[in-house]
């Protein structure tokens, strides 16, 4: 988070979680504190590079941005997947570099119990989907609600051009060199992750990584299995 005059900048570069398992994790509480520190900025740039995470944390962040008095610009630096795509919908203007991606799908959770308990879980998921889907529907989409639902049902990975075509972003800008802050383990949680996306989260051969950063990555990967248990969307 930083401020330059009347312009504030915040980054969502990591998983969206109810608790911070790693320095890159983003919680709704931390995000609120960053917004509070920026105070009365007139314009707010939000940079997203996230594979998603907790649906309720993400909806809280979305609502914070929607009621913020500043003009909100969303930049999908590399990936806005799952609940991160919902957060992106909070922008007054949504920018996507040519090489960025967005993934939308229905909420999911792990459940145990008898038949009645599992039926209730399915009903709860339907209500959660209705809530999060409002973020997409509030935009001026070029597709119907039924077509949107088909994309959600299919766990659809969208290019920047497709997002522009469907009304999920406002402008496609030139490609950037952002490296995705999403581990391959997180991508495995999704059923239809394209090979191109898996390649995005691998370290480029020409990248220079310090020993400190390498240790952070190793520590992060050790927590992924635990973190996935908290991912809802």
Written overview of the protein:
There is one protein chain. By secondary structure, the chain is α/β, with parallel strands linked by helices. It has one domain (2-228): 2-enoyl-CoA Hydratase, Chain A, domain 1 (Alpha-Beta Complex). The protein contains nine helices and eight strands. The protein has helices spanning 28-38, 55-67, 83-88, 115-137, 145-153, 160-166, 184-187, 195-200, 211-228, and strands spanning 2-4, 7-12, 43-50, 71-81, 93-97, 101-104, 156-159, 171-173. Strands 1, 2, 3, 4, 5, 6, 7 and 8 form an eight-stranded mixed sheet that branches. β2, α1 (28-38) and β3 form a beta-alpha-beta unit. The two termini are 25 Å apart. Residues 203-209 and 224-231 have low confidence and may be disordered.
